[in-house]
């Protein structure tokens, strides 16, 4: 029987970000056993991991993180010594329609995983020595920033908050690691609650936890209910592009593989009990990013660039729609040397190309229940 140097449980590994993290760890660390635990909800898809599924250091377990007994059993069975916890309900619009599911998975599920790890690790002679519970969270827990700017300068403007030269910002405030939590959506409220439980397990029991709060991710394998893949697919099929409100909301976009690299660095070198913000220093108004996506899809499909602009359709705004998110990730850059590797233009080109080249993946995830979801979310909006 092979013995592995580490046994790392990754939850939510069949989802968007999780699949990139699993792929990175399985390929980069053949000496680690990677146990991917996922319930396979609508957002989880094993097709995201086809290229690594037969590797000897990879195991997949279909389970619900809320199943506490199962979590306990798995900790012992696989001698888990590290956890990277990504499993969650992740879509704000769904949380507005069905907050209970978010409280169940994001709060109770996280608690069940924490307690199972605690009981198992405390039963070992070395206890918490060499262990790590790494919780993946979001910048949305911090609430929303205003579109403020220095006098006389219209945004976007260059700021000194970042080491990045090309940093354009829509306000002078950022989310820092010590920014007060102020979540507005049921999604962000459930993530905030789970973050508090993770920190409480450190403060109360001494569990070696770590939390990171990341900005919006984009890239391959994202479920097409989120802005970028949804719009790429709609442009391809010349379907309307439902822009919420005036399209003025700002998000800070990070290429998903850069997030996965940050998770790798932080899992190995981050300090216990610390929080790190992860972001791209890459703020975009929704309407501007949508125009870039339209131009890119048109160009790559051999259409006239911009000919699909008339698909833009302004619809009723999202309830409680947060105006602006912007992460300051200076701490991570300074302390652990991580920086985003891709310029946005390069990342969006790669992303659009991937979705256009992987129509079969898109067709699979948009068949079945997807159409019902789409109709219920956008009909009459
Ligand atoms: P996703 O919705 O694509 O994937 C979530 C995965 O979790 C799916 O595979 C799903 O099957 C699984 N899952 C859901 N409920 C489960 C349960 N009860 N038990 C076991 N597995 C379950 O999400 P994502 O975009 O990849 O986000 C992953 C994590 O990163 C989440 O915790 C999210 O809050 C956080 N995050 C996401 C972003 C982003 O832009 N997508 C940004 C910052 C943080
Ligand atoms: P989304 O991808 O859902 O991420 P989040 O809400 O976590 O930031 O949305 C990104 C932005 O795009 C957000 O401001 C809402 C907006 N949006 C639309 O305008 N239309 C859409 O159909 C969707 C899904 C999002």
From TrEMBL:
EC number from the UniProt entry: 4.2.1.46
InterPro entries, from UniProt?
dTDP_Gluc_deHydtase, NAD(P)-bd_dom, NAD(P)-bd_dom_sf
Give the coiled coil ranges. Answer: none
Task: Give the Gene Ontology MF terms in alphabetical order.
Answer: dTDP-glucose 4,6-dehydratase activity
- GO BP field: nucleotide-sugar metabolic process
Q: What is a single Pfam family found in this protein's UniProt entry?
A: GDP_Man_Dehyd
Which metal ions or organic cofactors does this protein require, according to UniProt?
Answer: NAD(+)
Q: Which residues form the NAD(P)-binding domain?
A: 9-351
Alphabetical keyword list: Lyase, NAD
Q: Catalyses which reaction?
A: dTDP-alpha-D-glucose = dTDP-4-dehydro-6-deoxy-alpha-D-glucose + H2O
Q: Which PANTHER family match?
A: DTDP-D-GLUCOSE 4,6-DEHYDRATASE-RELATED (PTHR43000)
Family, as annotated: Belongs to the NAD(P)-dependent epimerase/dehydratase family. dTDP-glucose dehydratase subfamily.
Q: What is this protein called?
A: dTDP-glucose 4,6-dehydratase
Task: Please give the organism.
Answer: Phocaeicola plebeius
């Amino acid at each position: 029987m092979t013995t592995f140097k580490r046994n790392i449980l990754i939850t939510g590994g069949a989802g968007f970000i999780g699949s990139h993290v699993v792929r990175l760890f399985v390929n980069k660390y053949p000496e680690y056993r990677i146990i991917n635990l996922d319930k396979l909800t609508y957002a989880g898809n094993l097709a995201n991991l086809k290229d690594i599924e037969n590797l000897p250091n990879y195991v997949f377990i279909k389970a619900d993180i809320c199943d506490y007994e199962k979590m306990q059993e798995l900790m012992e069975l696989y001698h888990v010594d590290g956890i990277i916890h990504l499993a969650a309900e992740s879509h704000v619009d769904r949380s507005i329609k069905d907050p209970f599911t978010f409280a169940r998975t994001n709060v109770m599920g996280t608690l069940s995983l924490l307690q199972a790890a605690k009981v198992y690790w405390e039963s070992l002679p070395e206890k918490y020595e060499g262990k790590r519970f790494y919780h993946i969270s979001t910048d949305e827990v911090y609430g929303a920033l205003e579109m403020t700017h220095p006098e006389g300068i219209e945004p976007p403007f260059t700021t000194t908050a970042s080491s990045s030269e090309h940093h354009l910002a829509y306000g002078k405030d950022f989310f820092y690691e010590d920014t007060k939590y102020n979540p507005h959506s049921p999604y962000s409220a459930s993530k905030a609650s789970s973050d508090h439980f993770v920190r409480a397990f450190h403060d109360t029991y001494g569990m070696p936890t770590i939390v990171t709060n990341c900005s919006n991710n984009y890239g391959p394998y994202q479920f097409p209910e989120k802005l970028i893949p949804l719009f790429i697919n709609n442009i391809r099929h010349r379907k309307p592009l439902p822009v919420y409100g005036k399209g003025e909301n700002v998000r800070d976009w990070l290429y998903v593989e850069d997030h996965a690299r940050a998770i790798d660095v932080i899992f190995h070198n981050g300090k216990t009990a610390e929080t790190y913000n992860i972001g791209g220093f890459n703020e975009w108004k929704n309407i501007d990013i949508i125009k870039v996506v339209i131009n890119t899809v048109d160009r790559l499909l051999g259409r006239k660039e911009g000919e699909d602009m008339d698909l833009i359709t302004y619809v009723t705004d999202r309830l409680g729609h947060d105006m602006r998110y912007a992460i300051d990730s200076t701490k991570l850059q300074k302390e652990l040397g991580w920086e985003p590797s891709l310029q946005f233009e390069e990342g969006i080109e790669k992303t659009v190309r991937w979705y256009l080249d992987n129509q079969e993946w898109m067709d699979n995830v948009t068949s079945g229940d997807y159409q019902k979801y789409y109709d219920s979310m956008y009909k009459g909006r």
